[in-house]
């Protein structure tokens, strides 16, 4: 599902952020990605979401070489990927329900067809009572759970999460971890970037450590 071969990434004329990164993930895998602040975790996830292109090397997703992917093929491939951003990226003028349903609206689905699916998912992440409130009244943990629900509402095959527990307390971090583990158990491939070593120990999944621009499987 994911295959990186000798990938390098540089912003402009600056120093390399990633240098000779190689690793692969199969369908149904769940890996943690860790490293110090500034190590390049977010950049690596952006490569996998095709928001960036590598300076060199091969990034292959679902058997497709992303460097030669046509402009028309990009949205189709991205629909197979869900992303949980560190800063939530909820739209303040939309309710929790509408934020979560946004990917389905963009795909042209009718609210009559997805209303119950969204409500069921909000119930699953513990936000049933907050379905029709706006982001400004949600706590940080509630916003994160809404962001997770939005990322998985379209049933992506691959889920990328960038520090999803970075702004919550340890108790809620553990609850969020259980959501990711359950999604993985149900068949979603998950790559979760975190600096939280305690979370990694609780998850008991393989660990990719990013250091000096390179990834090592621990």
Provide mean pLDDT, rounded: 93
Number of helical regions: 7
| Residue fraction in strands | 25-35%
Number of strands: 10
Alpha-carbon distance between the two ends? 20 Å
Biggest pleated sheet: 6 strands, mixed
Structural class: alpha/beta
Query: Helix share of residues?
Result: 25-40%
Query: Low-confidence spans: pLDDT under 50, at least 5 residues?
Result: none
Topology:
Layout: E1 2-10, E2 16-25, E3 30-34, H1 41-48, E4 56-61, E5 64-65, H2 73-78, E6 81-84, H3 96-106, H4 111-124, H5 140-152, E7 158-162, H6 170-185, E8 189-193, H7 197-203, E9 207-211, E10 214-217
Parallel strand pairs: 3-8, 3-9, 6-7, 7-8
Antiparallel strand pairs: 1-2, 1-4, 4-5, 9-10
Helix pairs in contact: 3-4, 3-5
Summarize the structure in short.
This protein has helices at residues 41-48, 73-78, 96-106, 111-124, 140-152, 170-185, 197-203; strands spanning 2-10, 16-25, 30-34, 56-61, 64-65, 81-84, 158-162, 189-193, 207-211, 214-217.
Describe this structure in words.
This protein is α/β, with parallel strands linked by helices and 218 residues long. The chain is built from seven helices and ten strands. It has helices at 41-48, 73-78, 96-106, 111-124, 140-152, 170-185, 197-203; strands at 2-10, 16-25, 30-34, 56-61, 64-65, 81-84, 158-162, 189-193, 207-211, 214-217. The strands form two sheets. A six-stranded mixed beta sheet has the order 6-7-8-3-9-10, with helices on both faces. It has a four-stranded antiparallel beta sheet with strand order 2-1-4-5, with helices on one face. Strand 1 (2-10) and strand 2 (16-25) form a beta hairpin. Helix 3 (96-106) crosses helix 4 and helix 3 (96-106) runs parallel beside helix 5 (140-152). It is globular. The two termini are 20 Å apart. The mean pLDDT is 93.
